[in-house]
Write a structure and sequence with these properties.
By secondary structure, the chain is an alpha+beta fold. It is built from six helices and 15 strands. A hairpin with a 6-residue loop joins strand 14 and strand 15. The longest helix is centred in the middle third of the chain and has 31 residues. It is elongated, with a radius of gyration of 30 Å. The chain starts with a helix and ends in a 5-residue tail after the last strand.
């Protein structure tokens, strides 16, 4: 155990995390005691380390002071290290600390990874964080004091919080038996203002998320609304139809590319487990159905008809509007999921501008009359040209 602890301290000192704000010896009534250390950095980050002479998983957890001592591990915020060899010949087992939530603890189940519940992975690590060797285990990780994640407990300096430890006799996440302990801890102010290393960034993940968000925003917030605007208000111009088709098909291509990109990135375990994914998928399906209805409306259009039929014309209009609406909702949910607060407000302003502009145009049409209606058949002062190829209308020569 001494060798294991010495190696952990040396590693933490190498990466600039010499923990010293708090040191505890916990689990005195367990098979083995657990040594826990923590330090707060810059009022934003807290780092922990723990060591135990046991050959199984090791976890640190937090819960609110209001938690019942008899069931203190229910709805707790867990950070668990499950160790495994890099290859079969390795004597040292390594682990990545995983951020979990104890939603099923009361029923006897293990904690659940935050990302499976729609939360975020908020643990990050020194270059060498957690390992197991010679029957001893060590864990080290850092996390923000406040994560804005519903499946984490914020650590507020100067306020008490339950600190818990638990370890197993194997690396299967099963019941730990009596090998657990908890105590109320008042985490103190930082003594190291410079802070630990920044959490490592997954650049490939960031790029995929950026491309996904960018392509979806262009498709649903720019191309589709303006393509619909052209179809609704620009029918008196010959170019409205080809431009409408080009913009909407480009929007569909962008949305499909963005969808494939994010599906290949997101683990299968958390695919379609949060509202952004549900609403986004619905918008994508409607984005395919809408142009199909538009094609049917184009080829089934009859200049002699008495009015606009529900199928496929009006259904095409309504699915298009619903697609755009769901697209905007999905973008908002995506920004909220990623906690992009700096982008939520500009996006809200864009929504207000779109709604305000559309409302102003509709009020003007009611007050001053329509220049071009949705259906050319309803217009007495317009004539149809190129009816075999395009739905284009222009004023009659004798119209007032």
């Amino acid at each position: 155990m001494k060798g294991c602890g010495v190696v952990v301290v040396v590693l933490l000192m190498i990466v600039g995390i010499a923990l010293g704000d708090g040191t505890f010896e916990m689990c005195r009534n367990c098979d083995k005691t657990v040594e826990v250390q923590y330090e707060v950095f810059g009022n934003t980050t807290i780092c922990f380390s723990a060591q135990v002479e046991a050959p199984g998983y090791l976890s640190i957890a937090f819960n609110l002071p209001s938690a019942k001592p008899g069931n203190v591990m229910a709805n707790a915020d867990y950070y668990v290290a499950l160790f495994e060899p890099v290859n079969k010949t390795d004597a040292v087992l390594l682990a990545t600390v995983e951020d979990m939530w104890g939603q099923d603890i009361a029923g006897g189940g293990p904690p659940t990874p935050d990302v499976f519940l729609g939360g975020m992975e908020n643990a990050f690590y020194p270059p060498v964080s957690s390992y197991q060797v010679d029957g001893a285990s060590a864990i080290a990780f850092c996390r923000p004091l406040k994560t804005r994640d519903e499946f984490d407990h914020d650590i507020i300096l100067g306020q008490e919080l339950f600190l818990m430890v638990a370890y197993g006799q194997s690396n299967a996440l099963n019941y730990h038996g009596p090998n657990r302990d908890f105590r109320l801890v008042n985490f103190t102010s930082p003594t190291a203002p410079d802070g630990p290393p920044e959490p490592p960034r997954d650049l490939d993940r960031d790029r995929r998320r950026g491309w996904h968000a960018g392509l979806m925003s262009i498709a649903f917030a720019i191309l589709m609304p303006w393509g619909a605007f052209i179809a609704k208000y620009m029918k008196s111009y010959w170019w409205w139809f080809p431009l409408h088709i080009a913009m909407q098909m480009l929007a569909v291509a962008f949305s499909v590319a963005a969808f494939v990109m994010i599906v290949l990135y997101v683990p299968k375990e958390i695919s379609f487990t949060f509202w952004h994914s549900y609403v986004g998928l619905a918008a994508l399906i409607l984005a395919w159905i809408t142009p199909i209805l538009g094609v049917l409306a184009h080829f089934m259009w009859n200049p002699e008809r008495e009015g606009t039929p529900i199928f496929p014309d009006r259904l095409h209009w309504y699915t298009a509007r619903l697609t755009i609406l769901l697209g905007f909702v999905s973008i908002g949910l995506g920004l909220d999921y990623l906690q992009k607060n700096t982008l939520i407000y500009p996006f809200g302003i864009l929504c207000v501008l779109y709604l305000g502009g559309y409302g102003a145009i509709e009020v003007a049409r009611m007050v001053y009359g329509d220049s071009v209606n949705d259906d050319p058949k309803d217009m007495n002062d317009y004539e149809i040209i190129n009816s075999d190829e395009e739905r284009v209308v222009k004023p009659k020569a004798n119209a007032d």
